[in-house]
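Lab notebook page, bench 4
Experiment: in silico fold of construct C2
Operator: M.H.
Input chain length: 81 residues
Purpose: comparison with the prior construct
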Amino acid sequence: MINRMARIEGHAHAVRDMLEADRDCPEILLQLAAVRSALDKVARLVFEDHMDSCILDAVESGDAEAKIAEIKAAFARYFVP
């Protein structure tokens, strides 16, 4: 995930450079879509890691309801329309 975030940072910087260079809007939007897609992939990995570790541990310790509520709240914030 760290490597993916480093690439995303590079792409975001490239988008800023494109804006400063007054590149065509379709090119900028294409790059922004790529950044958004990459962020969504990292979010999916974070979610999967959370399910594999935190939720599993919470189920085993009997604290699953609180952890499930926590991830639902995080999802609600991430997927705001």
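Observations: The chain has one domain: 2-78. The mean pLDDT is 90.
Next step: discuss at group meeting.
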